Amino acid sequence: MRRYFGWLLATALCTAALPSFALDTKETPDKPAARAAAANRQASVDAYIRARQAYEDEASAYWQSVVDKRRARNAKRRASEQIVLEDYVLTQPPIYSGPPRPPGYVPPRRDPRRPSEPIPGIGDFLRAASTQYNFVPDRPTDIEFKRAYAKVAAAAGLTRDQAVRIYAFETGGNGTYDGQAGIVGNRKDARPISPAMGYNQLLSTNTVNLLAEHGDKFVTALNASAEALGEPGRKAIDHKIATLQKMIAFSRTVPNAWSEHERLAKTTQGGIGIHAAVLDLDIGPLLQTQKLLDSVLFAKKQGHMQPLTATELELMNFTGDGNGFDLVTMPQELREKVPTSNFFQRGGYERNPIARRTSTVAALFAAIETKMDHASQSPGAKELAEAF
Fold first, then answer.
1. Does domain 122-387 have CATH number 1.10.530.10?
2. Among 240, 225, 210, 233, which Cα is nearest to 135's?
3. pLDDT tens digits, 210-241
4. What is the pLDDT of residues 34-57, one digit of tens each?
5. Which of 47, 291, 307, 381 could form a disulfide with 173 if both were Cys (CB 3.0 to 4.6 A apart)?
6. What residue segments make up the domains of the chain, in order of their start?
């Protein structure tokens, strides 16, 4: 009897479940619409992927041609051959004109990487300098730093016009020696967009690179300054020299290559701490000056003996010395025809609003000069001019 009752109960439960199963498989009015919407969305995604792939193929071919032409120009220049219009890519970079990315669609990464680390700020540079080198930079007022920078820059042969107009371009005319890219005013939500700091916006990689290549020269300059000091001042600067020598030694633990210096600057506490030297009253002006002086010396080494104008020097600073020299020595008739894209890597071009806005080299020159003219009238730029 108990077994019979159990069988009846199981049968009742199965029978009761059947109606709900039947309802699940029955076509409901909203399902065709949902399927149609899903199909339309997939079609939109497929169309977007096809259009983006076609664009990427075109863009990759374009930027590879820029690289190939640049290599060929460099070879001609080494052979003392004349550079002509046909040695440049004469079309503008392709622009994506396909359908927009469908809402909610997230393209997969082609090269999955680890999530990028936050860009260090001044506090991070100072902490690393303290822990790695027991170094706390002497941080003066901005006018004190301007006077020190003007003294070093003038002694190195930079003109007031060069230093002031480049400062005006790089910082908008009111930047401070401890200003970092992306940190504007006193906004609490401001975040650095780059490690670039100071009057000439040195990257942390610049600082490591400059110490590796010119560190001994900086030590000599500090020793010369120390000779004029009394005992207390001499003791302090001796400690600073010893610290600088440790930084120089660390910068030279890798081959003298930009990629190696970048790795130190971005992935090691020793490299992060080195960037705090930009903030120091004695070391910072040496670093800021040397960055520009390297471009001047590069141009002279290539046979350009005329003094660089501020715009020409900025272009050397702006695009890298090799590309900058190409720009500086280009005849005006070529400047009006050659696209700006010839002097950038694809990523740098796409991130740089001035490069994207200027279709030709002549337009790039004009844009830089216009910005310099405007920013040179700012109080900070006038203050630096008075310091020379």
1. yes
2. 240
3. 999 999 999 999 999 888 777 777 888 899 99
4. 888 788 888 888 899 999 999 999
5. 381
6. 34-87, 122-387
